[in-house]
Description:
Number of strands: 13
Distance between the termini: 52 Å
Structural class: alpha/beta
Mean pLDDT: 95
Shape: globular
CATH superfamily of the largest domain: P-loop containing nucleotide triphosphate hydrolases
CATH class of the largest domain: Alpha Beta
Number of domains: 2
Strand order of the largest sheet: 9-8-10-11-7-12-13
Low-confidence stretches: none
Radius of gyration: 21 Å
CATH architecture of the largest domain: 3-Layer(aba) Sandwich
CATH topology of the largest domain: Rossmann fold
Order of helices and strands: HEEEHHEEEHEHEEHEHEHHEEHHHH
Amino acid sequence: MAKIDSLFDVLLAQEGSDLHLLEGERPKIRVHGWLKPIEKEPALTRETLQGYLEEICEPDRWARFLETMDLDFAYEKDARFRFRSNYYFHLKGMGAVFRTIPTEIQTMETLNLPPVLKTFAQLRSGLVLVTGPTGSGKSTTLAGLIDYINQTDSRYILTIEEPIEFVHQNRKSHFCQREVGVDTPSFAAALRDASRQDTDVILVGEMRDYETIALAISAAAMGTLVFGTLHTNSASKAIDRIIDVFPAEEQNKARTMLSDSLRGVCAQLLLKRKGGAGRIAANEILLATQGLSKSIREGNLSNIRNIIQAGKSNGMQLMDDVIEKYLAERIIDGEEAYFKAQDKKRFIQYAPKGLA
């Protein structure tokens, strides 16, 4: 048992999502969205913190961390829990953040995801985006989608991640999971390799640069089903982000390729439940239609809101409509609705004093 495991035990016992360690500060955990210090734990000295971090890190990775001052990897505590780990340096010295990753993958039903998301898993080609800010549960949602494919269909699935979070067992499908920095030098390199690997499904852990996004769209256009993530809060912003990555002279071509390959967008936020009783996911859903393809080609992204509203009977939904529904059902309070809403005016009556 590693020394740091005692801190992970506290995190798990309190159903926390993240452990924060900063040199010179007390260890803190995030529980249901709130960050709080671990009781009775003293401020971390350099010696103590380095002991925690180095013990669970392979020597070559530790050397890389000291050289580059940043490191991402996954630490498996036991058969039940893994942790996505990020080491870094800051003003006062070393720091680290650990995100809880249960080894048991939750089903789409357990996650209470909109049933329409299963249609994404049944696609044979195209690009599907799962978007949201850091800590919104994108990886968990994608793991549920990929697991649904694994339970229901026989396909060759490639995941490209930094680091590998959820480890999938072969059931009906066959998996190849590659970690950036360990099994491949970059997301782009792994995507180039994928064209020679007879893949049916590709999961791209993060689409954050021009080359990765261009290769993902090309793979989707050539007949592979590609799932990717972006850090945006809505479907329209996700499309806008992808187009903006391309140089100005290539944006028209990018619009055309994206309009042909995009099959759907699921934007996700985690909202604090009323009374502090955990968190709940809210999803905005956009499905491919002729109107969507035309809007993307013409750069008319302001029309996406109308497309979602017109497609409610097919399972599309706006984020603010979901937030309003949760508010009406008293799942969340008005202040949380205001802060997480895209259209603040719609919830202005719940704004804290001084912001209204």
